[in-house]
Specification:
By secondary structure, this protein is α+β, with helices and mostly antiparallel strands. 40% of the residues lie in helices and 20% in strands. The termini are far apart.
Length: 1032
Amino acid sequence: MGDPSCRKIRNICILAHVDHGKTTLADHLIAACGGGVLHPKLAGRLRYLDSLDEEQRRAITMKSSSITLHYKDYNVNLIDSPGHIDFCSEVSTAARLSDGALVLVDAVEGVHIQTHAVLRQAWVEKLTPCLVLNKIDRLITELKLSPMEAYIRLQRIVHEVNAIVSAYKSEKYLSDVDSLIAGASGDADEELVEVEDDEEDMFQPHKGNVAFACAFDGWGFCISHFAEIYASKFGASVTALLKGLWGPRYYHTKKRMIVGKKGIEGVSKDPQPMFVQYVLKPLWQVYEAALEPDGDRRMLDKVISTFNLSVPQRELQNKDPKLVLQAVMSRWLPLSDTILSMVVNCMPDPISAQSTRISRLLPKRELVVEDASLDSDVFSEAEYVRKCVETCDSSAHVPCVAFVSKMFAVPFKMLPQKGSNGELLNNQPAGEAEESDDCFLAFARIFSGILHSGQKVFVLSAVYDPLKGESMQRHVQEAQLQSLYTMMGQYLVPVSSASAGDVVAIQGLGQYILKSATLSSTKNCWPFSSMMFQVAPTLRVAIEPSNPADMGALVKGLRLLNRADPFVEITVSSRGEQVLAAAGEVHLERCIKDLKERFAKVSLEVSPPLVSFKETIEGEGISLLDNLKAFSYCTDYVEKATPNGRCVIRVQVMKLPHTLTKVLEECYDVLEDIFEGQSKKRDGNLGSHIAKDDGELVAGVRKRIIDAIESELEFVSKKIDKDRIERCRRMWFSFLERIWSLGPSQVGPNILLIPDSKAGSVPSCSQGQRGMLIRGSCDVSKRLGFSSSVGLQTDSSVTSLEEPTEEADSLCLEAEALKSSIVSGFQFATAAGPLCDEPMWGLAFLVEPYIFQDDSDASNQSDQYGALSGQVMTAVKEACRTAMLQNKPRLVEAMYFCELNTPTEYLGAMYGVLGKMRARVLKEEMQEGSSLFTVHAYVPVAESFGFSDELRKRTSGGASALLVLSHWEEQPEDPFFVPKTEEEIEEFGDGSSVLPNIARKLMNSVRRRKGLHVEEKVVQHATKQRTLARKV
């Protein structure tokens, strides 16, 4: 099964918040074990894996880079990843190809928002993490902490990181318990849940998975290093010392025993834990001896002689004390040995890791088909391939499976000219050379079998299904690999083959893969599950060439950029603009620079950011219940008739609870899968092997919707009586049983409801005929399992109010055909609201369409007004938009969660910038033991552009900020506000002195950008010009 050489491989990535020392740490590992590509004196300064000019200029990592290290007899594939939130997609690509993660935390700054994100990423991808507390030297040199204060700080950081991981475990535990209650798991699963719930903290220094380091100075240690030093001195076992050197453990000098806090009481006035006394104090003494003007240099000599260190005399005599300190510390506690020994001992090899990660990489499928004869062979082969991936089988005869996490561009001149055996390589295929000067390589890991250069493989997209046969042909392509390379940072080393567990770069897949894909030597293979991205690309700009003749070059450049960047999105707007979506300002700047200098090579014009908004109506809490009552009794509605008078549309609108809107938004992808599956089942093409998974998805969504409504009712239950709450609950569940459609795009956060069986007053046409109600079908309610009990009431398409006749029958057929037009009108309305053509958000529409008998002039009217279906579609759209306008419309804007760190002296300047950006401060706290303040705030996306630059300018670079997309928030201001009442006129005046309306300004800016009509006066309160003097 697994090749023994596979046991000697470790695939790891480095994850951390920005500027916590990832690339510096990687430099020291490369200098020690990289085969001489980096001199130790340049480690930490060269930033070897930051090969882009922009990375060196900004001093941040922007892409994930891989390098192979040789430590003892182990091969360690190290992947460095960015820490900036704008490049979090690169973290996802690095995590997918790794088995373990080094999570770095700055000992001064502590846990930040991106630390949470990378821990979440490691948990989702089932990586084995190790914790590195970096920049320990800053506790001594900057904060001037005592060893005891430093210990308390380090202990708090370890505890905080453990709390984050425990929260993720609790999520899994609760979901497992839910599945047990639902009867989805057996006794074995119950046993597993109990074990995981009782498991101890993830990171514990005595387990060897916590390291303390100073990457810049090149030293680090685990407590096992000091346990071995003190074992002979104390006459204790290494195991006992490992447990004693962390936590409230003290050494009783008289009894020569390790005791707890009670055992040391009365012995010493100021007892200090063993970690402080025997680990931190010696470090503090060495630093003081080297850096203090009156330091005792004999302390350094003692360390050198005690541990038999070979430090050149010229380094000890250096006039710079910092260099002397580095020379001693890097030899006493070498960073590379500490980190790589922890990697080898604590992180799994590919064989062990893939058996743990298989449920994430290739989720188990089940074949539940009555006539399984045709698919059984394909299914069994696909399961055999999955078993090979699970065991990391590297035999020559097993299917080869690899996963490409991203494509990256390399200039053709950087490709090796000779192969692994010295033969000349032809590295410039005609197709790619004509299109670009860059070659696209696939960043991949092999999960089973052996991959050879020149081998033919199948490229499978994420939606490929081997059981669907011919219908899946467009999702699979056959490709021939050109060359394989081992990555050494920006340099490539050609290899003829690579086996399971290896991380390689593959040439020859540029025209087959856009972002990511699964490679397999057989078609009968499940594709790997999609990667999880922390944020979505929200910053959009329109791009056009300065010279219109360069439009072709721009389109070609955008196509290449889309392939080279795993997170960028390229679309064409309805007005024909080329729209580029990026994760943030830094990401956007890099994309524009790449377009200008590498891919398009033309001068560009970039529009101001295209900010997305949503539209809703006013209402929250108790007011929602009032709206619910009005909604149920048809007290107020908008009525629109088709131009030919044959249809009348009545529409009511109500705001959904915020919790329900949030659930519908979060379940967007799941609902898309559910409804796509439903459409395919109608065509008879959906394989029944996903029926079980589909049922679980439906049950999960249904539970979340019910929980959202219950939580909203619980929130308002304190203010109103129980009878009213119970009536509201019954009313909400009756609505859930009457959902006709969701919108926009069939899966959005807006609901279309069919009318209740008890119809209200029925409109009449001019000839006195009574209308026939077109009652829709509650398709969404049935699909989500809400309408099982009401199907008899709602299945009929129309409600006739007259005796059945031949004319009535034909009217029923016509009404049936109009159902799709009503749904389309609702989709159009929710996709473009009345304020500024932005999507609607969190609204429920009750549509009552009535149809009348055709009259004698119908043929003339049809020619005059067009098809009836189009008229109905337009009438529904206009009625929905008008209903929204009549119910206090509001604009909804996206909000960033902002985490800021600033010294005390710049706190006022930072608040000035936040006030200018309409930010709402959530909390402010001072970091213990430092002069830094951490401030959390919400900043509107529309105001955030240029925020980082303005902050740096106002605080002289002292403050830093990190923005993460958080949520959507309703603007409380009315965009159409005009003072009318006496109180309003008294407060705001007659209109001349009204304060700027933020909602109106935002709405007008979007309307102006889209070319819509804007109601504004060029001159508002002009006065007649007076001439003071006349010169004749």
